[in-house]
């Protein structure tokens, strides 16, 4: 998680100022995020499960990483064959770090946007096949707002895969009917959920 330490992520020490890309062309590359920041990359085991779920959805996808924090999930998607990834976060230290990551990896496939969600979604003009929504736990109520905004702006391709993450102790927020749950798993105090979007006709 990005801005709130959780029990499930206690395995990442206070000294952990790096995350590791775990698959694809940049496998095992380590990237630093700001020391002493409150950014907390999604743990390896959660990302591994997520990308096992997404193995048929990543290749050549246009991805969107909301509340992107360290950028670990979006960069993992690019490493595993996504065509593009837009990263969105309100924190300046996060967006600066992701700019650096993209330069370090020598890729022009990522775009970084600063802004508060869900209002920042109005500045995006792409159609996405793959979306990651992982807000700070206290902001889980923004998940359905982001989903509704993406749907209203026609920013999602039909059958787009949408990953959401929130605290296990918090019930999943009510989802717009066009989003159907496909996978759900709890990792300690973290719950992960994969949705698919279907255009309402």
Automatic annotation (TrEMBL):
GO MF term set: 16S rRNA (guanine(966)-N(2))-methyltransferase activity
SUPFAM superfamilies (alphabetical): S-adenosyl-L-methionine-dependent methyltransferases
Protein's recorded name: Ribosomal RNA small subunit methyltransferase D
EC numbers, comma separated: 2.1.1.171
Chemical reaction(s) catalysed: guanosine(966) in 16S rRNA + S-adenosyl-L-methionine = N(2)-methylguanosine(966) in 16S rRNA + S-adenosyl-L-homocysteine + H(+)
Protein family: Belongs to the methyltransferase superfamily. RsmD family.
Main function: Specifically methylates the guanine in position 966 of 16S rRNA in the assembled 30S particle.
Keyword Zinc: no
Gene of this entry: rsmD
Pfam families from the UniProt entry: Cons_hypoth95 (PF03602)
Keywords in alphabetical order: Methyltransferase, rRNA processing, S-adenosyl-L-methionine, Transferase
């Amino acid at each position: 998680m990005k801005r709130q330490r959780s029990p499930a992520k206690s395995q990442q020490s206070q000294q952990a100022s790096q995350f590791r890309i775990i698959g694809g062309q940049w496998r095992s590359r380590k990237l630093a995020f700001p020391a002493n920041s409150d950014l907390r990359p999604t743990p390896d085991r959660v990302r591994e499960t997520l990308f096992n779920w997404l193995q048929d959805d990543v290749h050549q996808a246009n991805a969107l990483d909301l509340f992107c924090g360290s950028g670990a999930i979006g960069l993992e998607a690019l490493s595993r064959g996504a065509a593009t990834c837009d990263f969105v976060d309100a924190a300046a230290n996060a967006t600066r770090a992701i700019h650096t990551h993209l330069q370090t990896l020598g890729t022009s496939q990522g775009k970084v946007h600063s802004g508060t969600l869900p209002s920042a979604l109005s500045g995006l003009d792409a159609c996405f096949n793959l979306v990651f929504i992982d807000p700070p736990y206290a902001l889980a109520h923004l998940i359905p707002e982001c989903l509704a905004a993406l749907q209203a702006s026609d920013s999602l391709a039909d059958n787009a895969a949408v990953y959401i993450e929130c605290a296990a102790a918090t019930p999943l927020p009510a989802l717009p009917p066009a989003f159907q749950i496909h996978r759900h798993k709890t990792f300690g105090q973290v719950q992960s959920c994969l949705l698919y979007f279907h255009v309402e006709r």
